[in-house]
Amino acid sequence: MDEGVRWLSQDEQRVWRRLLDAISMLTEHIERRTQQDAGMPASYYEVLVVLSEAPDHTLRMSELASRSRFSRSRLSHAVTKLEAKGWVLRTSCPTDKRGALATLSDEGMTVLRAAAPHHVEAVREAVFDALSEEQVRKLGEIAGTIADGLADTCAAAEAEAAEGDEPGEQAERAGDERGHSARR
Known about the structure:
This protein is mainly alpha-helical. The protein has helices at residues 10-38, 42-52, 61-68, 72-85, 106-126, 133-162, 167-183; strands at residues 58-60, 88-92, 100-104. Residues 166-184 have low confidence and may be disordered.
């Protein structure tokens, strides 16, 4: 084995695999329940939620991609599907014609409001009902520590991906990153 590699101990390997199993099973559970209860993929639900929390229920597509942790191409595909259902409207950005805005429609808000109680119940059953108050607190701390530790790496990857963007998109992405760091 490579001498410079910090291999996982048996305990760390066990915890890592349990974490991967838990994330995979939780993701599968939420996906299945969201499809069953709301008739949409969990990723579409997430886009609707992010838009519902934005001022005027509107975000630039790049900000929506960042907040929902989607690639721009994946988000564009999702928004195209949501547009076809009448749940999201896509328009040109009035201040930068190269940019696009996504807006949650009234119909999209109605769909989201109908889906939200089912989603919350699925999350509650899978996560919070299984944990004590102390475990919930610790899980929050652990998740925060992991997310904070990855924030710079993820921001650097976004910046690297933006290198091929037009100058206006680079400025927009820089503004998005400042918004993310301020929220954390």
